Protein 1
Amino acid sequence: MEATDRRAAARRWAEAIPLLPAAARQRAVIAARIDELRADTLDGAPSNAAQATSKRPAPRWLAALGAVGLVLWKLKFVLVFLLSKGKLLLLGLTKWKTALSMLVFLAAYWAAFGWKFALGFVLSIYVHEMGHVAELRRRGYPASAPMFIPGLGAYVRLHRAPKDDVEDARIGLAGPWWGLGAALVCLVVYLATDGPLFAALARSGAWINLFNLIPIWQLDGGRAFRALTRRDRAIATGAALALWFFTGETMLLLVALGGTFRCFVGPFGTGDRQGLAAYLVLLVTLGALAMLPVPGIAID
């Protein structure tokens, strides 16, 4: 190999070595190769890579803390949102009917999945429903606290119908937005602790909110579709179908099937670009979270 080629090879290896962890065995091997190439070209200076390898690596907990800090920074808007709504979230729990129905719901899932997962799952659904309550209150509508039905989910009773389909879509999609926030919080805790419980909660939370986006009946997706034109419904349906094709997530296929049905069955709305954009963002983010690998460890 010519000297110029050896110098070029040494330079490329030197540019690549910072990408490897300090304690990696491959880093030491590459450092030795860099020194060999430089020695062959009479560049007798010792390699910086070899010196870096000899340094004591940073503690693993410090690297993990940095990764968690980066995730928290990227998702800070979710945490700030949930913390700012803490008072409203606690308010629903003070209603005895809501608390009692939650306990019955919790008992049903406790028997199947253990109390830890059951509690987290119930709270995820509660946050979703309180999203509807928050949006209703913001728009000046009275609304009941959530009521839970084991095996079916939960609902919020409206005391007055929304003024139009667009407003109804906003109220409907507020639930999945808050549910997405709860799932992202579980994801952050999972990344910080490697706890399989929180991975399971993030994935199941994404799954249940995707279910609510199926555009049929009184589901949140059905309410969102009422304001959409036929063309907008086709766009949302195509997006769900494309996401299903790339992910294989069955719930996305159900969303696409429901959307296909609504593309041919009216009445159609006059258009809601903001609602369509929100629906698409929810599809993508919840679809990605629904693919989160869950370590096969008991969580009860």
Note: Residues 70-289 form one domain.
Protein 2
Amino acid sequence: MNSIDSLRARLPASLQAEQQGPVAVLRLNRPQKRNALDDETIFGVDAFFSAIPAGTDAVLLVGEGEHFSSGLDLSELDERDIRQGIEHSRLWHRTFEKIQFGRVPVVAVLHGAVLGGGLELAAAAHVRVAERSAYYALPEGSRGIYVGGGGSVRLPRLIGVARMMDMMLTGRTYSAEEGQTIGLTTYLVEPGKGFAKGLELARRIAENAPLTNFAVTQALPRIAEMDPGSGYAMEALISSIAQADPQAKARLKDFLEKRGPKVTRG
């Protein structure tokens, strides 16, 4: 498997990667462009999630500078015809699917602008932490375009079709507090505290049994889309596989013998 050093050498300047114990940190690094997502950056994100470094049990996705991401770099749209547009959208789909259904869970830390394709990128993560500076919008409608990075699929599952429709038709912007309320994020922290909170959560996730994390990120979203009968059958299968894992048996034994962690109020 790849080391963080070998992977870092293959990433474009618009991305930075570092290892913090079991957590790999991937940082969008175009602050002068508000971390707009150009093709080079998307190819780099694809490369990172295609070869997550050895020893990594969770990934933390963050943005450098004052913003997480202002979305698609519109300067690349000028000469694209319909066929090229479809290919470009499919590139984003393939890349973001490697985040959502990759080897390890992903925590995204959001601050400043989280717009368009930046919101689509964030929606592919499994846990989202927002600083109070974050704001969300889908400005594609006012620019004569449409989301192309999986937003039509992922965002309605988070906030509903009606809210997404409103955002695209009217250009509505949601604040960090509103985004927390409607389900765009699950944690809200003060400005400058996002990275620490995200790293704390990623490290906590990394302590879980790998098979459990895999079941949560791979099976749970698919079960949620099944009819109830199929969902129950899949849940029984995944549950039996997880509990038969040797690591699960060891953890259960530790708990029963009062050596394992207990649930406490957060």
Note: The mean pLDDT is 94.
Protein 3
Amino acid sequence: MIDESLLNSLSNKEKEIFKKGLEDLINQTYVIEDEYKKLNESYTSLQDFIREMIEVQPNALWVLDTEGEIFLQNSEAKCLSGLLEQLQSDKDTYEIEYKNNYYLVKVAHHIDKTVISATDITEEKRRERLASMGQVAAHLSHEIRNPIGSVALLASTLFKRVDIKSKPLVLEMRKAIWRVERIIKATLLFTKGLQPNFTHFYLDELISECENATDEYTYTKEVEFEFNFPHVKVRGDKELLVLVLQNFIFNAIDAIEELEESSKKNQVKIDYNETQSSYVLSIVDSGKEFENKNILFEPFKTTKTKGHGLGLALSLQIIEAHNGKIELLEDTKGFTISWRKKEDE
């Protein structure tokens, strides 16, 4: 409060000067207040911008204070709250496994804050693993091919010379050799990549191929096969499509073999349908249900007691090369395989 006696002691000129100074002070206060508001708005805007920048990052991002408490995080980080508990802030860069996924973790320290990012590299690790496994598989396939060829030739010669009682044993040997040759072929196709040779052929030509495959395959139960392929012209790589059907037939047989008891008859059935744009095959069987649908098409993974885990993965690769897809049936155990017709058909 202004001292009234002091104010009265001032001359008129001094009062004017004092008044002018007071007005300037008040105006300056308003200016400072306005600048403060603008500064606060800028700070709030900067905070929102930083939050947005953090939020749009594809990886999980945490900003921690000196106590290790979360100062800022994005939605990806919130979904991985359990991962944060396992992270180490004393390392700059490292990899960590969390819930069957792999993450690349990077840590940066700035003044009183620690910034931690976790990038999902599961798919990259998967590709590295597949590439490594593929190289080993391709090498082994090349090494095995020559001796298997020799064994196959010797088995054919032996089949002609042995007595009638021994022929079934040699026949089983030939079936086993045929199976190994298929595995080698599938492995080399998968690792080297596919180059489909598209031609036109009649679908019912595949019936004999499927029947021959069942004759070559070894199984112990009675299985009824039904291949309903009409005499229609289709377009695709016949050899590769035969390989796909064989893979699904063999998987169906294995599923029937693994089923301990069944009140139904053992059956593998393939039907044909088509849409305006695609050829469609449905394959159903009465075998054991899938144990883990998530790994059905994962290379080198299988829940079967026999198999190398490449059949369905290679089949998917072949069908995708035909601009098609493989889907699980919903109401019964089986699949649909569809691939696109040529655009001008």
Note: The longest strand covers residues 101-110.
Protein 4
Amino acid sequence: MFPISFGSDNHSGIHFTVFSALQKVNTGFCPAYGDDPLTHDVLHRLEALFGGDCEAFLVMTGTGANVLALQSLISSFNAIICAESAHINVDECGAVQKCTQARLSPIKTSDGKLTTELIEPRLLGDRDQHHSQFKIISISQSTEYGTLYSVEEISRLAQFAHNNNMLLHIDGARLANAAAALGVDLKTMTKDAGADIISFGGTKNGLLFGEAIISFHPELTSNMRFFRKQCNQLFSKMRFISAQYEAYLDKDLWLKNALHANAMAQLLANRLKEFKQIKITQKVYVNSVFAILPKAWMAPLQEKYMFYTWDEARNEVRLMCSFNTLEEHIEDLVATIRELSEP
């Protein structure tokens, strides 16, 4: 174990409030598979948080959330447009293709963001019976590069999707960080912007496990509960996911955690800018910092701190902050870098 990790917001533990909530419900007996009062209440609260007239589902993992959200809306002959860097394309071991039998159609981008201009050429001829039929545009908010779609950009993509008989999916593993960075509520950024189905992540923001899917078209996702069972995402002791989300929603803990993680990333980026040998490669919006480091620094830094190399060819690394990243963690890293930078 590393005493300090900038590797992933998954490396952090459980927020103490969430841990207490788990202990609180760990008594007595309770109906399984979501048939308990706590789960019913949490689902209603989630639906209200996103503006109502929607349906919430609790699942175990982010990959499961993406698979289920997409599977509930497509057939095997469909295709899903996504950024080349998208989690569903790079980091989910082909789970979407395996479970849906649909095709991913990734588009190369410089910042992880899709635009209508990038997508439109892909649609030419896609209605031919020999071709997979495009059905969903899938975006990540925030993206894998830590970049953000504005509400207007999401609205533009949603309108474009709907005009072309498609739907808009948002992978919201870090949706809390995006809302915190944009200063908007979750309803404005999703339902009001025209999204059709989204996930609202918890694992990367202080939960032990658990993600929520929000469908803004329950009439289209009526089979979600059956897909959830088939995909091994129906947790039997559902109260232990629900208790976490109850704590997550109380007093806007989801937002407080995200604001802190984002602020730590901003601090980290500002401190790294003090070193002329380091180049920040993406504007810092949320809780990630992308930077090019001198190659000679990599080994000594990774002996002491956990972080991942994003682009090995140019020594670009990704440094992640989370709800329990402290200023002293950042100052510790900066002190080590200063030692390396001085002859």
Note: The chain has two domains: 21-251, 253-341.
